[in-house]
């Protein structure tokens, strides 16, 4: 179980700070601080830092092996974010789908792509024991 006194940290490249802020704030992520070369977000309780490196952008991203995201423990939270993404016309890399249908590890998932081609996965497992 996660301890509340710890925050996961992830650093990723971005190509433009303004469009990065717009994208992550539209997801509900709070802009914690911004400098000339990076912006730090409260990404659903964890820390994501987008460093300005337009020369480091993956022009042809693939879901595997590199992506990051959030696993919701409540189905309503997953459904709410999916509805928000649709309402705001956020760019999907992979439309909503069910993975491992009929198996214990069955889960609902979708992938968004941020302005720097970083892939974000959001998912919900029907069986909470399959989260880890």
TrEMBL record:
Domain VOC: 6-125
Record organism: Salirhabdus euzebyi
Domain of life the protein comes from: Bacteria
Protein name per the record: VOC domain-containing protein
């Amino acid at each position: 179980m996660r301890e509340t006194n710890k925050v996961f940290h992830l650093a990723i490249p971005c190509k433009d700070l303004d469009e990065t802020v717009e994208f992550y704030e539209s997801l509900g992520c709070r802009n914690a601080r911004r400098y000339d070369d990076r912006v730090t977000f409260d990404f659903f309780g964890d820390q994501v830092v987008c460093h300005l490196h337009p020369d480091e952008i993956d022009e042809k991203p693939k879901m595997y092996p590199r992506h990051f995201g959030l696993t919701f423990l409540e189905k309503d939270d997953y459904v709410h974010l999916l509805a928000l993404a649709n309402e705001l016309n956020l760019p999907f890399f992979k439309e909503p789908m069910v993975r491992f249908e009929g198996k214990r590890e069955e889960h609902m998932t979708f992938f968004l792509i941020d302005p720097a081609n970083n892939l974000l996965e959001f998912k919900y497992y029907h069986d909470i024991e399959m989260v880890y």
